[in-house]
Amino acid sequence: MKSAYYVVEFLVLVEVILRGGEALSMNYYGMSCPFVEPIVRIVVNQALHKDPTLAAGLLRLHFHDCFVQGCDASVLLDSTSGNTAEKDSPVNLSLRGYEVIDQAKKFLEMQCPGIVSCADIVALAARDAVFWAGGPYYDIVKGRKDGTRSKQEDTFTSLPAPTLNTTGLINVFSQHGFTVWELVALSGGHTLGVARCSSFKSRLSSFDSTHDVDPSMDPTFAKTLLNTCSAGDSAAQPFDATTNSFDNLYFSALQKGDGVLFSDQTLYVSPQTQQIVNFFAMNQAIFFFNFQQGMMKMGSLDVKEGSQGEVRANCRKIN
Ligand code: HEM
Q1: How far does the centroid of ligand 1 lie from the alpha carbon of residue 138, in Å?
Q2: For the chain, what is the domain count?
Q3: Where along this sequence does the record place binding of heme b (predicted)?
């Protein structure tokens, strides 16, 4: 019996060595940087106290990081003379919250230099932002390493476009290993923040051969969106009535035909997802549970461990 135990221990050790370091775990920084979570939380809370709209920015940053090359902070790298990085791709130009990550990194480098990865900071900041805005709290594994590749072309195929219908969304999300329930739950991230007119204006004129505007929209809401767009392409439209609060009103909006993006409203139009939207609109606790499960899974997408990556000294540059 005892020898079997030692065999298992030995295999775990071999696995760790082969991976080039410790695997992801809840307590990854327990010895090396025990105050990592309170430090990130304080920085995030201070930033959100000054600008509550940044909760949305931090959540989206984590999503756009994880769906492109995995959760490796590739989204934070700046372009260089020979390389256009992910953050300068058209789909990422409205990402926000980089300076909050920089600030947390600065404090962490003072406390425990060279230990905490930028990818872990992004994951923690998104979690803390959701909680700050009234959403669910969940524990996350740590130990992600930072990647060295960041190319704008990687964003073209990995991120969903706002013009996709439910089949298209299911396709993109299933490529990353997500179920239909998880797609709908994670789309509930749109309970926070805004979309700019350029992301939804294709719904407002010459929609198709028989409709001027997207017929899945409530007509009064179509007027609201037209009004927003009268201020130009970068005019912002909140996704729901409580733009800085994490709640289930996004799903109630979809039931009324008040989804901002085509990719939002399609979740209520499609029989494949309508019931899930109804569940989440009816019961916030069910939405929160599914959202937190989805976020824990998203935070582990194609994570680099051990020698597969590095711990950047500056989140915007490779070492
Ligand atoms: C289902 C597919 C999705 C599509 C097509 C999509 C698309 C978009 C688009 C077009 C915007 C507005 C960008 C702009 O106009 O500046 C946006 C904003 C946002 N998205 Fe998504 N998204 C999706 C899923 C997600 C997921 C899974 C999350 C997080 C879990 C998320 C979080 C956000 C947040 C928080 C904002 C607001 C950002 C801000 O106010 O700065 N999205 N999304």
Answers
A1: 21
A2: 2
A3: 190
Query: By C-alpha distance, which of 146, 68, 139 is closest to 105?
Result: 146
Strand partners, 25: 142
177 and 294 part of one domain: yes
Q: Which of 53, 60, 138 to mutate to test the pocket of ligand 1 (most atoms within 8 A of CB)?
A: 60
**62 classed as catalytic:** no
- Which range marks the domain in which residue 135 is found? 2-158+302-308
Q: Which of 49, 62, 64, 176 is labelled catalytic?
A: 64
Instruction: Please indicate, yes or no, whether residues 249 and 103 belong to a single structural domain of this protein.
Output: no
Residues 28 and 127 in one domain: yes
Position in ligand 1 atom list of the atom nearest CA 183:
1
Q: Rounded to an integer, what distance in angstroms lies between the CA atom of residue 129 and that of residue 192?
A: 10
Inter-residue contact 239 to 194 (CB < 8 Å): yes
Model confidence pLDDT, tens digit, residues 236-261: 999 999 999 999 999 999 999 999 99
Residue 53 belongs to a domain with what CATH number? 1.10.520.10
Which pLDDT tens digit goes with each residue over 260-281? 999 999 999 999 999 999 999 9
Q: Is residue 319 part of a domain?
A: no
Nearest CA to ligand 1 atom 11: 195
243 annotated to a ligand binding site:
yes
